[in-house]
Amino acid sequence: MAKNIFMTSTLFTAAIILGAIFIFIVFFIALHKKKHNKKLEKQKVIFTDLVWKNKLEISEKENINSYLLALDKINFVLLYIHFKEEKEEVELIDLWRIKAARAVNEDNSIYEQKKGKSLLVDKQITKIQLEVLLHDMTKVNLALYEYQEGIQDYMFIRRRANYWAEMINSQIKELPQSIKKAAGKVQG
User: Fold this and answer.
1) Where in the sequence is the domain holding 75, given as residue range(s)?
2) Phi, psi values for residue 105, rounded to 5°
């Protein structure tokens, strides 16, 4: 009888502890979700404000981690936003100014000295970015991944970077030729 009461009280105590842990986990999940939703809402407001202020007509957009790429095929504008904790970084690039775009990796090579020679032992990808080459030969680098964010989804992000580079290059080729020649003369 005493053994049965001891078992019951032990099971009751374990149930209380498990219930408290469950409530604790649910509370922190809800708190995290609320914080995430608040962050997404802030990003949406910033994006909508930029679109409205610049009179853009976005035909395609994509969020990749804390980065946003958008393309306005009517006004020929590429919009890039890096949502940082303190202040977002915004780039509006006129497609007429772009010569080419490509996806590039920035690597950190790790070398080790063996018998007086440097040997490459590891390579870490520190950044995936869209490299936008302008007609005046300056480059604008638009980061889509940085090492401090963790290496999750590398292949996905790399595929998306390639997709955006191809889409930008395609849009450049489709610019109306008569206007394109006039824009080249003005810039050249």
Assistant:
1) 54-187
2) -105, 145
User: Under a CB-based contact definition with an 8 Å cutoff, are residues 131 and 139 in contact?
Assistant: yes
Residue 167's CATH number: 2.30.29
Four-point Cα dihedral 111, 113, 117, 123, nearest 10: -10
How many C-beta neighbours within 10 Å does residue 62 have?
A: 13
Q: How many domains does the chain have?
A: 1
Query: What token pair was written down for 92?
Result: 């509006």
pTM: 0.71
Residue-wise pLDDT tens digits, 73-108: 999 999 999 988 788 899 999 999 999 999 998 887
- Sheet containing strand 139-146, strands side by side: 98-114, 117-134, 139-146
The answer to the question of residue 25 being in a domain is: no
The answer to whether position 9 is within a domain reads: no
